[in-house]
Amino acid sequence: MTLDIIKNIENSEILLTNCIFEEVEKNETILKIENLNVYAKKEHILKNINLEIPKNKITVLLGPSGCGKTTLLKSLNRLTDLYKELKVSGHIFIENDDILASKQNTSVLRQKMGLLSQRPYPLPYSIYKNVAYGIKLKGIKNKKLIEFNVEKKLREVGLWEEVKDRLHSSPESLSIGQQQRLCLARGLAVKPRIILADEPTSALDPVSSKIIENLFKELKKHYTIILVTHVLRQAQRLADHVVFMNYGEVIEQGSSKEIFSNPQTSQLKEYLIEGN
Amino acid sequence: MNRFKRIEELVFKWICGIASYSLIGILGFIIIIIFVKGFNALSLEMIIEAPKGGYYYGGEGGVLNAIIGSLYIALGSSLLAIIIGVPAALYINVHLVRYKKIQNIIRYLLDALWGIPSIVYGAFGFSLMLYLGMNASLLAGIITVALLTTPIVIRTFDDVLDTIPKGLQEASFALGSTRSETAFKIIFKQGFSGFITAALLAFGRGIGDAASVLFTAGYTDLIPKNLDEPAATLPLAIFFQLGSPNPLVRERAFAAAAILTIIIMIISILARILSNKYSKLNLNN
Ligand SMILES: Nc1ncnc2c1ncn2[C@@H]1O[C@H](COP(=O)(O)OP(=O)(O)O)[C@@H](O)[C@H]1O
Ligand SMILES: [Mg+2]
Hints:
The complex is a heterodimer.
Chain A lengths: L1 H21 L6 E12 L2 E12 L3 E5 L6 H8 L9 E9 L2 E2 L7 H5 L2 E4 L10 H11 L5 H14 L3 H4 L12 H13 L5 E5 L7 H14 L4 E5 L3 H7 L2 E6 L2 E7 H6 L4 H10 L1
Parallel strand pairs in A: 3-8, 3-9, 6-7, 7-8
Antiparallel strand pairs in A: 1-2, 1-4, 4-5, 9-10
Chain B lengths: L1 H37 L5 H5 L15 H32 L4 H16 L2 H14 L6 H24 L4 H9 L4 H12 L1 H17 L2 H4 L19 H9 L4 H35 L4
The complex binds adenosine-5'-diphosphate and magnesium ion (MG).
């Protein structure tokens, strides 16, 4: 376990030095998906997905419900392992390591991504411990260090001022929007490189949604964000790169500008008209 | 049409009402009978003294031996059932999360075990005891009752764990928790109210069951000091005294039944309060 962590740190340092060189090229890829197929019994849920996810950008996954967006996200951090009926094949490269065929243990792979789901699922602990849980999983035991990091992560999601006086009460006392940000802080505590957000604002009120949106704009400086959203306007506000999916296939992808002002396929055109 | 519906509604309401009120009535009637019939024999002596010579013929003493024996057996067996049952329930819900079919088979089997009459467990415990060369003892009683209550612990806890949304498990895994961390740190904590209910249900069942301890725990007027000594139990104390031709002794049987009823009522109320308290903490999840 500790060995994995040390290796991980070494890897990221190597990567960091790589970054400095590659920063010059503007569209660096952090995640590369090759021939990804997901089957559930007879159903072909994801059909030959090939994607490159640009680093430190917001990539929006767009598409009608049931087209496989959630399944795609779950394949990325191997949550598909939890479903026996799902058969996943293909390659997902992150830092030259194939997530689907890696020798590293699943925990380490999963910690490269932070997951934000449709509604918040706080752990059955206090606000403080929710964030501390992730930090402890990273092997940090020093109490002061944990405390320092909890505050840092809560500040990162703009929650610190709101909760600093009730760190030890239950997350149930927070609004859904605050809970969602708590879950984000908890996810950031394991130092992911990518944030997977599956319709993270669909259960939230407009004000809370706006806060999350603004957070994402901030966070993309340090993280790569893959965002699934139903809300076209949200996609337009946030996306750098857009991937449009339908029936388990990638139909069209491109920069936000290309996709929204100059859609190529009739499917996307239809979707954009219906959505607006 | 409308009128017909109204009548149908009314009839149905009456049937339901009669069914539930008669149930409450019968329960109340049983409790009243026990307390009325046992009232004269109820005394402090009864709960602080073990039987003295000739107790079963109307002599002096009490049923402290049976009270202590029952508490030991209920506590011991609940502990054993929890030690086995809690990891089992967590295993079903976390480790077997991918295997819906296996989950269902296990649940079905456990439900079947739950339904087996306790005399069968008693007979099984008795043969096991002979096979192992043990005597009727506190330990044999505890093991037999634990066999009976383990399925109850597993299924009760499992039923609560089953209601925990899958999203919480996924959130835990997504953070990089292992299966065991997810099971013991997250899911156990989230389902804590179910754990309390399961533990108290096992205790209540363990303290009240007569058939499973009939051959295995033995019976003695002494208070057991060791696991290999026989132990008296309240249900058996009731059973033996009720068969006596002496009306005084039969009265004492009802008094013992009253004591058992009070203990069980305290347990149920405790179960309600505790599980309410803990399920409120986790509401909305
Ligand atoms: N575990 C599963 N077993 C069987 N079918 C599944 C499973 N998960 C998802 N699906 C199917 O895959 C399709 C895509 O689902 P999903 O990825 O949730 O879509 P989206 O998130 O785009 O709404 C749906 O038709 C759904 O029924
Ligand atoms: Mg979805």
